[in-house]
Amino acid sequence: MSELPDPATHAYRQDLADAALAGRVIASHYAEPLARRIAVAARLMKAPADDAELVSELDAGEELLMLDNSLGWAWGYGPDGRVGYVRSEAVRV
Fold it and tell me: Is the pTM above the cut of 0.85?
């Protein structure tokens, strides 16, 4: 039995996972992260909700490796490699 990668530093959910995790986790879809810049200071949250646990604070200009951008939230890796959600309007597309 293999252990799943740490979800705090490996982006995977039941519906979507980083393509680099194919073969290690099961997801409906896999995607390559897209490099995007944070347009305005933003909070990286553990879940797509303003009252979710704070993962980190992102400064304008920092990079987000984005895997999903839907329902007002972008999901991916922050500059320190931690996974979380930021408000879509904080991300330059």
Answer: yes
